[in-house]
Design goal:
Length: 257
């Protein structure tokens, strides 16, 4: 079953219950435009609220994850229009990062520029061993999205992030794994199945607690220490109350049997 927009769709499969796949499909390179970003944001919001989806795969298909922004289209814009582009890109990638469920990017072919920023918004990344990576915006005289640069820097460190961004060079999956940009490297034909296997581990987990754990880990990088401690306490108490409510419900059910 698929919920479909023009370029982004959501797939669920009865053979893989609980796993939803957000699919980007804008051939030939999955280059992203304002419309694509809006559709990504809408799809992220949908998978976040759907009860039949417990874990999410971000997938560009078996040929290519994404070559990043559609540069020819971007070059036609006025400054004010480019500002809108930057905002919808930021909103879309943040929406993916904010999905309150385990997420995995299944990376094939090429993942470049803003495509790399999108992949970094997932919790985990699995790549084919033939994939080519690059923070390539500098080659067009531009810079990566600020949030994308922050995630890149958080992942690989300051000096390595600067080298990758300054040069815009392409690098292979083996280097990406050494840098921590990907968590698993498999044969190209096995990328999607590896992502399904990772996502499937969490389908039967306590979804409320998983969402709280994800938020808590993300906030290590996003909140000041005092704010983080207060947020962690609120989150712990919320999860505790939720778990207690479920336990009481189960006890009442058993008592009525």
């Amino acid at each position: 079953m698929a919920a479909v927009s023009e370029f982004v769709s959501i797939h669920v499969d009865a053979e893989r219950p609980g796993v939803g796949t957000l699919v980007l499909s804008r051939p030939p390179t999955n280059a992203m435009t304002r419309q694509v970003y809006r559709e990504i944001g809408q799809a992220a919001a949908e998978v976040a609220r759907r009860d039949d989806i417990a874990a999410v795969i971000i997938f560009g298909g078996h040929e290519i994850f994404s070559a990043g922004d559609d540069m020819p289209q971007l070059r036609t814009l006025a400054v004010s229009e480019a500002e809108t582009w930057a905002q919808v890109r930021h909103d879309a990638v943040d929406a993916v990062a904010a999905i309150p469920k385990p997420t995995v990017a299944a990376i094939t072919g090429y993942v470049l520029g803003a495509g790399l920023g999108l992949a970094l918004a997932a919790d985990w990344r699995v790549s084919g061993d033939n994939v080519r990576f690059g923070a390539t915006e500098i080659l067009a005289g531009l810079v990566p999205d600020g949030v994308g640069m922050a995630r890149l820097t958080r992942t690989v460190g300051v000096s390595r992030a600067k080298e990758l961004v300054y040069s815009g060079r392409f690098f292979d999956a083996e280097e990406a794994q050494a840098l921590g940009l990907i968590d698993d490297m498999v044969a190209p034909d096995n990328v999607y199945d590896a992502a399904v296997a990772w996502a499937g581990r969490f389908v039967d987990g306590p979804q409320y607690a998983l969402a709280a754990a994800k938020a808590g880990i993300d906030e290590v990088f996003e909140l000041a220490p005092a704010e983080r401690v207060a947020a962690e306490r609120r989150r712990f108490l919320g999860v505790f109350a939720h778990a207690t409510k479920l336990a009481l419900r189960d006890e009442e059910f058993e008592a009525r049997r």
